[in-house]
Structure prediction request, 454 residues.
Amino acid sequence: MKRVIELSINGNSYDVVISPEDLLIDVLRQKLDLTGTKKGCGQGDCGTCTVLIDGRRTLACLTLAIACEGRQILTIEGMERQGALHHIQQAFIDKGAIQCGFCTPGMVMSAKALLDERPDPTEHEIKLGISGNLCRCTGYVKIVDAVREAAVRLQADAAAGKGA
Amino acid sequence: MSLPPFEYLAPTTTADLAGLLATHRDKCRVLAGGTDLVNWMAEKIYRPDYVIDLRKLPLSGIRYEPGRGLTIGAATTIEAIERSPEIRRFYLALAQAAGQIGSPQIRAMATIGGNCCNASPCADMPPPLVTLEARVVLTSTRGSRELAIEEFITGNRQTAIQPDEFLECVRVPDPWPHSACRYSPFGLRAAQEIDIASVAVNVAVDPATGAVSKARIAMGAVAPFAMRAPQAEAQLVGKKPTSDVIDEIAIQCGRECRPIDDLRASASYRRHIVGVLARRMLRDAVAAIA
Ligand SMILES: Cc1cc2nc3c(=O)[nH]c(=O)nc-3n(C[C@H](O)[C@H](O)[C@H](O)COP(=O)(O)OP(=O)(O)OC[C@H]3O[C@@H](n4cnc5c(N)ncnc54)[C@H](O)[C@@H]3O)c2cc1C
Ligand code: FES
Ligand code: FES
Prediction:
């Protein structure tokens, strides 16, 4: 049975008509036009649908939209601030960590979850942090570099009292 | 892929949950992390009329009390188990198993209850739970009952749960004195891999004699459910765990498991891997006790 639910996404509130069986990934992409989050495998393997729900990394392809009522959803569209890219996004560009870009939104969200918990991760921790995200193009080396670079920039900001 | 239609229910008390299960029985499915259930519904293997979400219920949490053991709520995430200081200190094999599941995303979503109820032959939590003599608490409007994990998981994706019951929590007794437990799976890549085989061990050593006083060994992905190696266990008890003894026991584990050939590995390769893992885990456990 269709019903209206309220979703909080990137700090905005959306009233959306859904069926209980609608998956978050489809609601984001098809009903709310938030197409930054990608749908790859649709079964939990590739990580490109990764979003943060209440700060925790979550696969939107395995999540019912209706179960997200009352929770804070952060998608790739919510990363930029006042028109400026987030440090993680900019570091991906600067380090050449993007080729086709299909994995990038999920990679960035996984990197965000990692750096929120561990502002100064080791290379091994970065690899573990993105181990649920598959990239067919880059070979991962530049992605790891980008996350490292983002950590440095975020820490510099924190030291300068600017916050993330 | 879209899911078949259902009604969504999110009870806020366990009494309501039990009531809904008693009413809808076979027509409903409990939803925890959804990492198995959503896939199974997408493949139309399950077509429940009602999906009952656990997320508003107080079913998650880890409690350890010396003398009373460990209680893990059914909806506790795999990530919380991996990170719990108590579990890392007293039940390391459980943290090792949790840390090997899926990916960071899967671990943040998946629950221990879902892992046990899904009862996949290659699930990572059951082998260490078996070696730690874990029990599950099943609750319904009829009351609660407790079963050993080995009685609960009865076959490939089969459990003893009744349609009106839910898994409330998993209980693990206090660690044996002078003991250590270890777990390792083996797969072809480090993340997002389905195990070829896995081995959990739990060993206690008598400090007076240096001989093994108690031992449990469980093997995953080499039988329809996590199976023990009773002969290997019996052979180990009473002996000093020298490296020759451990080598012998490890080979015996490889003999006792019941693997199949499939696209991931041949049965004979699985037997070999069980031996390798058993040797490594027994060595690690014994070294940790000494
Ligand atoms: C990409 C991917 C990788 C994976 N990798 C691994 C891995 O490495 N190792 C591994 O072991 N598993 C793995 N899994 C399987 C899965 O993540 C685990 O089995 C997980 O623990 C299931 O928990 P859940 O909370 O998501 O269960 P759900 O999907 O919510 O539920 C699973 C089943 O259990 C029932 N259920 C859940 N909780 C209860 C309860 N409290 N009472 C009664 N019934 C209940 C549900 O009705 C359903 O039938 C993987 C899955 C995916 C998609
Ligand atoms: S689309 Fe969700 S993990 Fe691949
Ligand atoms: S850049 Fe193409 S998949 Fe990663």
